[in-house]
Each structure stands twice: as C-alpha cells, then as structure tokens.
Amino acid sequence: MSSINRAGIRYSDLIRRIDRLRQDTDTASVALIMGRIDGVNTLNERFGYSIGDRVLETFYKKFAAIARENDLALELSSNSFAFVLHAPRHESHVMLAADKIGRLAAEWVQIDETRVRLDICMGCALAGSEEERSDDLLRQAEQALQDCRSSDKSVMIFDSKAGDTPGPSSHPLFDAHKAIENGEFRVHFQPQFDLRTGQLSGAEALVRWSGPDGLMAPGSFMNELERARSMIPLLQFVMNNTSREVARWVRRSPNFHMAINSSATDLEDTDLVDVLADVLRMWSLDPARLTLEVTETSLMRNPDQSVATLSRLRQLGIRTSIDDFGTGYSSLSWLKTLPVDELKIDRSFVQTVLEDPRDREIVKSVVDLSHAMGLKVVAEGIESEGIMEVVRDIGCDIGQGYYFGKPCASAEFERNWLLESSAKRTADASHG
Ligand code: C2E
Ligand code: MG
Ligand code: MG
C-alpha cells in the first residue's frame, strides 16, 4: 500500500521502512528521493502560520496521491520529505517521479487573497541489488540533495560511476547560444521498418552536437539547451536540416515518414505550430510526411495546453506520436482523449520482452488498446532478432533499434536503406 506519514519520522525509521519494503515485496530495487522545501520560515513570517500550514498541507496531499502501490510518500518534517519509488527500471524513472513532485510544488496555491507556490530541491539515489544497503542509499540521496542545494538545479541524482559527483551534467564546453548561432549540430537518422512487410517505413531524426570531442549524443547537451531556452531554435535547425532529405526520400519511398523529436518546452511554446508550418511551406513538404514525437512526460506537464497544441498540429496535417510511452504515469484512459496517431513503447519494456513475461504482457496490452483506438504502435530499442520476432508477433506495427540499424548521417542512410529499399521493392514488383 502507498502511504504518507504525517507525524514526521527520523532517518533510522526511514531506513527501516525502506528495508521492510524491500523484504516484503522481495524486490531489492528501490529509489529514494530526498526533498527539501526552501523558504518555509519566510512563508510563515510573511503570511502567518495558518496560511503557511495550509500551503504545505495542500502540497503534501498532492504528494501523497502520486505514490503508486508499494511506493512510500513520507513527510519527514514540515520542510523535508522522502519519496521511495518501488522497483524503478531505470534512472529516468526516478527523474520522472522527481519531476512530477517538482511540478506539484510549483503549482500556485490560492489561499484567501494569497497566491503562493513552493520552491523545492531534491536529491535522488537508486539501489538495484541487495548488496546496496538502504543506509548507503540514504547517504547518497542526501549527498545529491546537498549538491543540488548548492547548485542552480532543482533535482540531482547520485551518480555512482562518477564517484561522489552527481549528474546529470552537460559537456563542460557546450555553449547553447554559440552552438545554435554557429550551427554546431548535425542530424542523424535511424531507420524504422514496417514489421509486417519488412519494408523501410521512415526514420527518426536524432540531433548530435559536433563538439571538440567529436559528435556527442543529446544526453551531453540537452539540459543546457533547455536551460538556455533554445529548444525552438533547435527544432528549427533540425527541421531545416531534415526537410530536404525528406522531400528527396519520399520520391524514392512514397510512404516514408520522418519523425522529429520535440521537448516539453516546445509543447508549451505558442510559436511551435507556426514554426513548423513555416518550414513545411518553405520546403513545399507534405505535412503528412512528418511525425512530431512528444514524450509522455512532457504531455503531462500541462495537459490542457498539450491537447490544444496536438489539435492544432492535427489541423495542420502533421502526425503525432507519444515517445517513451510507459515511462510516465499517465493513464490509458487519458490517452483516449488525446489527438495522437501513434505510440512508441519505451525501450525499457521492449528490451526485456524475451526474459520478462510481465513486460511482454505490458507490450501486448498497450498494442491491443492502441489498435482499438486506431493508433499505430512503434517498438523502439529492438536490439536482436528474437526481440523483433516477439514484438512483431504481439502486433507492433513498426520497429526501430540497433538490430535494424544505428542512427547515421544522411548519405549513409541513403546508401544503406533507401537504395536497398527501392531495389527490394523493384525486385518484389518484378516477381509479383
Ligand atoms: P528518443 O527520441 O527516445 O530516441 C531514441 C534513442 O534511443 C536515441 O538516442 C537512439 O540512438 C537510441 N536507440 C535507438 N535504438 C536503440 C537500441 O536498439 N538500443 C539502445 N540502447 N538505444 C537505442 P539518442 O540519439 O542519444 O537520443 C536520446 C534522446 O534525445 C531522444 O530519445 C530524444 O528524446 C532526445 N532527442 C534527440 N534528438 C532530439 C531533437 O532533435 N530534439 C529534441 N527536442 N530532442 C531530441
Ligand atoms: Mg524520439
Ligand atoms: Mg524514445
């Protein structure tokens, strides 16, 4: 059962509760998020204790509500809390939970004439096996919290590989404004295949930064770009450097779709739809050839606005896809209300379908439900033939992953996939 402790608890109790959770559920894998609410004294001094208490109570009530079965939402004191995430699959799941808590705190609370919101900081740590003790987990989460408080970030995760230095971190030489201005990015393309016919169906455009150490994946600069509010300029760059290819590739492969990634801030930007419409016009590109990927978590940041943006994209004729599906906490019934065309099952489920029957069941129910709602399903992260066969037999429509091909530059993509695909189609036609 999920629960919140309103009485306030000590660290030793916290460790005991985590130990008990691990034993009772027979699962060693847990994550701990330690949080601190800043400015509670100022809040009380400025507005009085009664308003201060009500603001905190409102936050803690919403905080308790996000705990799933077996998660623990614990109020340690009036200005500190702990969230224990049961059986997270990956660090990104921990960050998603922290992001959710951060968004709850940032929501305005109206009390009488006063409108207040909270400023919080969080440190996270993850234990994946029995050898990783709960008191080490607490020490690591506390350390990440301390580092977070002395930085400009609102959440940090303890990075065991980097010793005691928590991540996530950007490349030290990455300068967002300079990179945008000088066009220091490159776009790579990863092929996607129709799992029923085996034919190329499209590609996903994935950005790289051409830095002093060569081409770097988005993990090393995306945070910094977001912080510099440069996501729309990045989207423009990617669109401009992709549209010419799409126009050419569609001539070779008429059903070709290009998937472009968007970020959470793109969805909140009222310019997004106009920016896309401009680029499409400039390159005389059929909007139906473009699929905009939005992550499940970014949709949930501001659900009403997301629905409005998705509807405008649909009016424009652009397809939309929910990326990394399964990593957020959105309900499947909410999906029904979204004007989207496709769903991409997160690779953390796909990669374990061979060994974990529960993941196979999850993929199967997502596929059944999506098909019932008229959505296409993409399985991402297919790394072997065995995985490809399982997701194909379950009914996923499209596959993407290292088994088919890694992201590569446009010339290589053309050589490897388009020439081959049109040659194959020609051969098929001549045999038929
Ligand atoms: P994503 O959209 O979920 O993209 C899939 C990521 O999985 C890519 O990582 C890809 O290289 C990797 N991948 C593909 N197949 C496999 C596989 O079989 N096994 C494994 N282990 N990984 C696989 P990448 O290129 O590092 O991109 C990471 C994330 O950065 C993307 O995740 C996307 O969220 C973001 N991103 C990439 N390009 C852009 C962009 O132009 N704009 C925005 N806003 N975000 C982008
Ligand atoms: Mg994507
Ligand atoms: Mg994805």
The CATH homologous superfamily of the largest domain is called EAL domain
Q: What gap, in angstroms, lies between the N and C termini? A: 60 Å
Bound molecules: ligand C2E, magnesium ion
Q: Strand order across the biggest sheet? A: 9-10-12-13-14-15-16-17
**Uncertain spans, ≥5 residues at pLDDT below 50?**
1-5, 163-168
Mean pLDDT: 88
Helical residues, percent:
40-55%
Strand content: 15-25%
Q: Indicate the CATH architecture of the largest domain.
A: Alpha-Beta Barrel
- Could you say what the CATH topology of the largest domain is called? TIM Barrel
Shape: globular
Largest sheet: 8 strands, mixed, barrel
By CATH reckoning, the class of the largest domain would read: Alpha Beta
What features would you describe in this structure?
- The protein is α/β, with parallel strands linked by helices and 432 residues long.
- The chain folds into two domains: 3-157, Reverse transcriptase/Diguanylate cyclase domain (Alpha-Beta Plaits); 176-430, TIM Barrel, CATH 3.20.20.
- It is built from 17 helices and 17 strands.
- It has helices at residues 11-24, 40-47, 49-65, 91-106, 134-149, 176-181, 222-227, 231-252, 264-268, 272-282, 296-301, 303-316, 332-335, 347-350, 357-372, 385-394, 410-431, and strands at 3-5, 30-38, 72-77, 80-86, 109-111, 114-116, 119-127, 155-157, 185-194, 200-211, 214-216, 257-261, 290-295, 319-325, 342-345, 376-380, 398-400.
- An eight-stranded mixed barrel has the order 9-10-12-13-14-15-16-17, surrounded by five helices. Strands 1-3-4-2-7-8 form a six-stranded mixed sheet, with helices on both faces. Strands 5-6 form a two-stranded antiparallel ribbon.
- β10 (200-211) and β11 (214-216) form a beta hairpin.
- It is globular and about 65 Å long.
- It starts with a strand and ends with a helix.
- 41% of the residues are buried.
- Residues 323-324, 344, 380 line the site of one magnesium ion.
